[in-house]
Structure formats: structure tokens, C-alpha cells
Write a structure and sequence with these properties.
Chain lengths: 370, 413
Amino acid sequence: MKDATQGRVFGRTQLEDLVIVPLFALVAALFLGALVMAATGVAPGTIAQSYAALLKGSVGSIDAVSETLTAALPLVLAGLGLALGFRAGLFNIGAEGQIVMGGLAAVVAGVALADFPAFIALPGALLAGAVTGAFYAGIAGWLRAATGAHEVISTIMLNLISFRLLDYLLRTPLIQKEGRADPISKSVPDVAELPKLLTFLDANLRLHAGLFLTLVMVAAAYWLLFRSKLGFEFRASGENAIAARFAGMNAGLTIVMAMAVAGALAGLAGANQTLGVLGRATPGFSAEIGFDAIAVALLGRSHPVGVLFAGILFGALEAGGRQMQVDAGVSIDLIGIIQSLIIVFIAAPLLVKAIFPWGFRKAGTGKGRS
Amino acid sequence: MTVLLDKARQRQTRITGIILLALGALIAVFLAPDASGVATFRLSRPTDVWPVPNLVVPGGAFIYVASAFLAFFGVRLFLRGGAKWSARLLGIGLIIAVAAFLVWATAGKSFSFTGMLQASLVRAVPIALGGLAGVLSERVAVVNIGIEGMLLAGAFTGALVGSLAGGVAGLAAAVAVGGVFGFVLAALVVTYRMDQIIAGVFINLFVLGLTSYISSQVFQEYRALNNAPVFRAVEIPILSDLPVLGPVLFSQNIFVYGAFILAGLATYYLFHTRHGLRARAVGEHPRAADTLGIDVYRTRYVNVTVAGMVAGFGGAWFTLGSVGRFDEGMTGGRGFIGLAAMIFGRWHPVGALLAALVFGFADSLQQKLALLGTPIPSEFLAMAPYIATIVVVAGVVGRARAPAADGKPYVKE
């Protein structure tokens, strides 16, 4: 019994938990996904074909790996922010809105800095994204600290507000592309674009320098969370807010800071999309990344390295899913089912044990103990 | 501790005061000069049994009076810091501000006030039922982020079964499927002790994935599977002939009546029956409840399953109560707004219903204003309800308290 409750504690090191459980979850989710396909009348041959396409589209070629990583980057960035918030005891649903605001701000800054060289324009645009995201999330943090308004509600409302604000701003003369009547922003100038990394292999490869940004941010988040005073305060107020206050920590400031850092990372995720992939802002450019990132942060157990791998896994499913739709004609929405099943299998070890009593869990624990 | 609370409360009152004062100033500066002529609100149609005359309001005068009231409230709150009154004054102040805004937008024109109220109720239904589902499960300390998914599941099942076997069967199936997802949530968090928020996120993602998948994989090809009958309005004899109240309250479809009845039933159940008392005990202090012989696990299973059924009923509104067909992700965040309504309504069924009505009103107000052709961009009108929610949640409900054990798993010893 004790063992089972400990299963949720962060930082488990056993091989079973880090490799076998996720692998098992992936296989079981794919198996159930196949059952769903069979139940909706997809022929067995097509099911096999679609999973072959899933593999091919995610890791089967340089192009596939490039697509996987491109899809993973914003998920990892936003997921890192959410993970920091979770550690501080804040359930921030607002990554989507922070991505919208950050991504748009990056475009605006990029356009404004078009006459500067790249080493000023690009960092300037990224910074604008991060600061705007931080500010937007900070509103929710401030409201929580100053008035006690629950962050789940305020971040949901800020998401909805951001979508409308985006629709409006994309039609203002400062932002709208010249000569267009529909809501679309000016294009990001070359100097502010995140350079493509693999164009020397093939001009169509979309992987961009956001990769380095993301890796740096994973390391920075790790440092912030486990090596810095601020991160200690985040974790302390997340574990026990009352104890943290009696230890002399400023609870309100911690909340605002945690939200701001989370917002900065989500804003960077938005900037990463507009400066690296899309080249402009359009309505709905955030594409639910902020909601998928919640799953990524949970799956990565709110640990920066875990978030990195969870993000890559989700990116691979995303990229492979597109291939699956093209090759086998199976709707990409199947990926959503598989992603949710992976989460449930990883987050509920007791459930897995109940379904497979003879399974790895018993064997794994036995191995661990011997 | 109390000193700290008092300080926070004082600051909150101050902020509320400033907001009201600012609202008053804004109204006086921006709205008053524009509001020439009278605003005419149509209250009944000429065909009504008992027609009532239109409500005619002189624009400019009304707005100046409104802004004076707002300024008075704001200054009073700021100077006196009457914490007791801050919530009520903020509420009244917001109502006055909305009224002034409405008069300004209608000045020189006329529009159907009754029609707007009627639309408010219809739009409030899924939010109210979502909020009610939240109340039922959070009262037994299970945080239900999965309401959005349960609404979507209800909408989907309603469309599918409704197309095959008729509206009533579709409604029953939607309720049943909502219950299944409630049961799944209960099983995950009670028996398998999964993190409650992760379990809710799982349900949302799973239902969104499954319904979108079937919708694009199957419905595209077999359109007959996605063509359900719609429940028409049921006119209650005599009462539906009342002016204003008749069309608003007594000439709606079963989902509107259902939301009101369920809110009443839930209040009775939670606060006036033995089982309700037990449920609340499980939500406040499961260990003590367990010691007294209440089966904590069973109580949570039953309540969360019922919450799922309520959400399934609310979900059916999207298809069987309005358009008759299912679209991918058609709930559009209503489940989350339902959660907001739950907190706004202080974890009380009637509170959640009233909060949902406010959201519904804001929603239909925004649509009407867009029709009236105000110079304000429609995006800002669409934003207004959300901003109002934030203001209200920050100003009024900051002190509301969730059930003590909310979100915590319980392990029997």
C-alpha cells in the first residue's frame, strides 16, 4: 500500500518508472487506439498501414524528425512554464492566452525592428514575446495575490479575452498586413526570424533555432527550480503554503513571480511559433498548444527534463499523425485519443496494476528489491 | 492572522471602490454626450394576450444619474471601507453600469428586451448544468476539470442516439454516457488514486479526441447519423401568457426547465437530506466522516456519477436543445465557464445557477449590442463578460471557500 502511494512522488529513479512505464503506456495506448479504429470499421490492413505511417512520419526520416522536433518545441516551452506553476501550487490554464499574446508581441516587435541587424532584432522580438507573456500571466498572479481570485478562473477568462483581443488587434492598421481585409498580421522580417537549421540538407526542413532556445530554457528551468532561491520558494509554497509563509517567504510575491515566469515561457512558445514556423500571426495561430502543454507538463511530472521528453513524445505523435492521415486516411483526431490514454496509463499506476496483475509492476518491484 | 485578513479585505474594498468610481467617470465622459434621444425597450409583442407598453428611457438624463450613483458608491467604499457592503455595492454598481450602457446603445432606437432575456436563459443552460455538476462533485471533494469533456460526450451521444432512435432516447443516452464518464472519473481518482486534475484533463482530451475522430471518420460519410430532432419549446398554460415573464420563464424547452429543477433538487439534496449532509461531511473532513461510519468511497462514486449525468444532460442541450447536429469541439469552453460559475456561486447549486444566468445575460447582451451597431468593436463587446467575471471573482468571491478536503485523495486506513 505504501509503495503504491509513493508512486506519485516526484523524482523516482527506478528504471521501471522512467523507461518501462512510459513504454508500456505508449504500447497500451496504441493497442487501444487500434481497437477504436477497428470499432469504427477501419480494415485491419489499414490499421497496420496507419501505424506504419505514424512511425514513418515521426522518426522515419530526417524530414520526419525535423517535423517531430518542430512540433515539440512550443509544447516543451509552454510545458516548462506550466510545470513551474504546478510546482508552486498554481494551476495555470492560461498558457494558451499567454502564447497568443507573446506570439503577437513578437511579431509586432519583429516588424518594428526590421531595420536593425539580426543580433538585435531577433533577441528583441523574443524578449517582447517573453515579457508580454509574463505580463499577461502576471495579471492572474496579481489578482490571486491581491484579492484571492482563483487562478483557474482568471486564466480561463484571460484565454478567452486574448482570442478576442487577437481578432481585434489583427485588424488594426499598425499590425494588419497592408492591403488585406482579413485579420492577418504583417510578415515577420527576415532579421527577426528564427533561422532554419537544416536548409543545407533540404530547403523544406522546418526545424529552426528555437531548438537551442528550448534546450537552454530546459536547463534554465532546471536551475531555477532546483538550484535557485526563487525556485526553492516556488516549491516550498507549492508543498505547504502556510509553512512557507511562516518561514518568512512573501506568499503574494512568490505567486506573482511564479505566474510571470510561467507566462514568459509560454510567451516564448508563442514567439517560437510566429518567428520560427508561421512567420506571421493569424486568428487561432496558438492551435491549442497551451492546452496540450498542460498534458505535457503533467506527463513530464512537472520536471524540466521530463517535460522535454514528454514534449518530444507529443510532437512525434503530432507529426506522425499528419502522415497517418495522408497515407492511411485515418483522421488525425485519433492522436488525441492516444495522447489521453498515455496520460492515464502513466498517471495511474494502480490502474495499470489492476488491469495487468501479472504485469511488469510486480516483476519490476521484485527486481528493484532484489 | 485576523489583522492580515482585515488588511486584505480593506485593500479589496479600496480596489472595488476605485473600480466603481472609474466606471462612473467612464460612463459620464464617454457615454453621456452620445446618448441623445430616448431609448425604447420593447417588452411584449403586439400579438401577446396581455400587451404591456414599451419602456421608454430618456438617454442623457439616465446616464448622468447612473454615473452619479456609481461615483457615490465608489467614493463611499474607498473612504469608509465598509467591507460588509463591498460585495453588494459592487453588484448593484455593475448592474447600473450595464443598464447605462444598454440605454446608451439603444438611445434613439428600440429593441426587444424580453427577447434578450429569453436568449440569456437559453445560453445559461449548459453553463448552469456544468456548474451544477461541479458543485455536486466538489462537495464530495472531487475537483472536476472534466466537465467540459462530459458536456461534449453528452452533446455527441445526444446527436448520435437522437438520430437513430429519436430525441427522448438520445437524451436518455446522453445522460447515461455523462454518468459513465462521471463514474470513470470517480474510479480513477477514488479507487486508482490518480491526481484529480490529471484525471479531469484526461477525460477532456479523451472525449475531445474520440468525438472528433468519430465525427470526421464516420459522420462525414454517414450524415444520417448526425441529424437529430430538436426539442421544441413547451409552453406552460396560462403562465406563458404573462407579459415579459411568460416568454422568458414559461415558454422554453425542457433543458431550461431542467436546469432550474435540477438546481432546486440539488439544493434540497445537499442541504436538507441525510445523504446530502453525509456528502458534505465527506467533502469537508473525510476522515471524520469515515469514523462515523459513512462510506467515503461510495459517497464519492455516487455523487461524481450523478454529476456526470447532470453534465451529460447539459451536453445534450448543444445538439438536442439547439441545432440537432454535432460539430467537433462544439462545447467551446462552456464547461470551464461552468466551473467559474460554480466558484462565483460559492459552491452552492442556486448560486451556480444565478452565476450562469449572469454569463448567459452577458452573452446575449453582447449579441444584441452587435445588432444595434454600436461604435465599439464587436470583439470588445464579446470580451466584456469575461472581464466582468474577473472583476466579480476578484471583488466578490475572493473570500469564498471551497470544501475543505477539495482535491485531496482519501486513503482508508
